[in-house]
Each structure stands twice: as structure tokens, then as C-alpha cells.
Amino acid sequence: MALLRKRVARRTDVQVAAAEELEGKRLPTPKASLPSQYSATGRPVRQRKRPLVTDMVDVTAVEDDFVNVTESESEIDQPTQRVNNKKRKRSPPPSLTPDRFLDPSTSSASYPSTPLSLQTNVPVLAPTSTPISLTFNIPAGFQGPLTINIDANNLLRTPPLSQQTAAASKYASPAPSSIAMPQRKRAGSIVSRSLPGKVGFLDLPPEIRNEIYRSAFIKDQRRINFSTPSQFQRSTALLRTCRQVAHEGASILYSECEYYFRRNTSSRTPLWTTDSKEIGFSDVHRFLKMIGSTNVARLRHVFFLLEDAVPCLNPQFKTAEERRYVHDEHLKAALRIIADHGRLQTLKLGFFGRRNVAESDSNFLNEIKGIKADSVEVLARRCHPDWPRLYSNLQWPKIFFHLALDVKTAVTRKKKFYLPWKEGKKDFFEDDSEEESREARLCRDCGDVHV
């Protein structure tokens, strides 16, 4: 056992010696020549693309690195403290005193390097400025603060004393006759807006312009009859001068005239055929379409005289039922336009056909009921222009009485803001049960009974 231990010890000694020889002869590994991965402070070192030259060392760079490292270490070690930034105070505003009250000589001599906006001293008035005197009459026993508000802009408007004396001497030197004094405008003087010294039509008062419009458009007759177009010779060229004249003149032309819509029994031949046809209510329909919805809304007084077509002028209609006005498409279209855009005050209806309007003509009656007016009147036989030559034997218009009452009730606009009776007189159709009492009102024009 002792021999084995000695051999092992010898072997170990031999092995140790061989290992030392190998370590002396071993080449340095490439990993041993590389720099360490971490710095002295424990931070990882970035890999550089270029090899680090260790021949020369910059001392300042080493010091900077050391300082940065120490600062970063201190930042890590110490917790961050919040810095309270104080709000900056606003700089004082510039002086509100006008510059002309400052003496330039004194300010430049005493403060040559300080700008005007930074001067906080009391401004010195210039010796050449106008003296300002303030007088306060305080009553006896006055208690309380006395507040004085002086606007610097008003002080700027007052010229200095030297300029006032110079201006006074300037205006006092010439003769009074050579000075051109401004002329005062009279109360009744009219000055043109476009050309000075000339008076135009729009410079006249509105009342005078309205009288001119009435004399040009209305004249002596306020009714415009579509059955005899001779009254259409009223010149409307005045409406084409400008927009203001067109607006003012159209309001009088359409609102103060009564438009009498009656069947025109004249014939007209279209260009594409040789057969002449009756005009009828086609011109009425064309007129309402041509003036537009704006002028239709200006209509205030409308009179419809409804008659059937003439047999000899309408050969295309074979029966009397086809010639009735309740089937006229132009008349229905005209009624529809007035119902959509009209704002009538008075509406007069005359039913003078060959047959009475019955319940079967509900389509035509619905077109009439679409119109709204302040007052509606169903005319009697004597209001027809051809009475008594044609309608002397008629006792009532060609419409049943109850239908006339329905039309009047539906067309009349409801009075919402005032009572339906005035001065104790009730409406003609209210609270009357007997038909005889309803027929008691007479027409002022013809003396006949109206609905």
C-alpha cells in the first residue's frame, strides 16, 4: 500500500511538471486578447467597428469619460427630484402718455441708453404743448371718492397752441369774399345717388313713386279683362329699368288690380294646322305660368266667370257635356296655380254654364276649394255682363245652393286673430237655420241676391 501511494504521488508530481511546461509553451487564445465585455463600473462596452489604438491615450477624453461616468452613477444612485419652475412675470407695459407730451431733450439727456418702453418715470410735458386746465366744482358736504377719467385720444386730437394761432392767422389774412364756405343742405333738397347735382327717379320719395306706378299701370280702370285683351296695352317697360323699380312696380301692378278671368270666345289657328280653335282659358293658364310664382303670390283680387265652350268654335267636342267648363284642363291648371301660390283677399265666382254644378262634379269643386281667400262671393245672374240679354230667365246661378255654401266655407280663410262678428253683426251664414234668411243679402252692384 505504501508503494502504491508513493507511485501516485510521483505521478502527480510528474503530471504537475508537465502541465507547467505546457502552460509555458501554450499560445495566447484569441479570446484572451479581446477587451473585457464590461467596463470597470459594470456597464456593457459597445463594440467598435475600428480597432482601438492603444499607443496614444487622450487624457482629456479619459477625464471626460470619467466625469460622465461619475455623473451617470450619481444619477442612478440618487432619486430624481422635481424642479418647481416659477412662472415668469410679465414685463411692465409701455407708458400710455402720448409722445408729444414728452420733452425729447430732457428724456434723451437724462436717459440716453434706456429705451422708451422701459422708462417708468413720470413723463415730463413739453413746454410747447397746450396747457390743460381742469376745474372741479365740489359742493359743500361732499363725501366719497372723486373719480376722473381722461382719455388720451381726445388729448391727441386737440392741436397745440402754436398750431391754433397759426391756423387763426391763416384764415384771418384773406378777405371774407375769397373764402369758400360750405353750403348747408336744405331740408327739401334732393341729391342724386349716381350723378351729383342731378335728381333721378329713385331719389324721389316712395309716395311719389307709388303714384307714378299707379298712373302708369292702373290708370282709370283697375280691372284687367282677359276676355277683351284691349286693356293689355299698359306699358310695362318701366319694370325693366332696374330691380328696385321692378319690385316696387310689380307689387302695385298685381296687388291693386282686379284680374277678370273669363272665357275668350275668339278663335286662333295654330301653326301646324288649319283648323281654328277657341282660345278659352288657355291664355289665363299661360299668363299665370309666365308671371311666375312670385307674382302670383302678389295677386289680391281675382274674378272667375265660368262659362261653357261655344259649339261652333269647338268642333272637336261632339256633346254638350264635353263642352262644359268643369272638364276644361286649362281652367283646372289655372285654379291649381292660384291654390298653390296665391294669397288672395277677395275671390268672386260666377257659375254660368248650361247645367247646374252637382255632386258629380266633385273633381272640379275640389280644385276650387284648394284656393284660400279672405272673402268669397258667389255671384247671381245680374252680375253677368250679358244680363238680361241672355240670363234674364234664370233665378239662380248654375250651382246648387248647398254646394255654393260648401265652396264658400272651404275657400274662406279662417279668422284666427279676431272674432267672426263685428259690431254685433254676425256672419251671413252663422246660426241661421232657414234658407229664406240666408237669401236676405243683396248685392250692392246689381241689387240681386248673392250667396
TrEMBL record:
Residues 20-52, 70-118 are annotated as: Disordered. Residues 104-118 have a biased composition (Low complexity). It comes from the Eukaryota. InterPro entries: AN11006-like (IPR038883). This is Nuclear elongation and deformation protein 1. It comes from Sphaceloma murrayae.
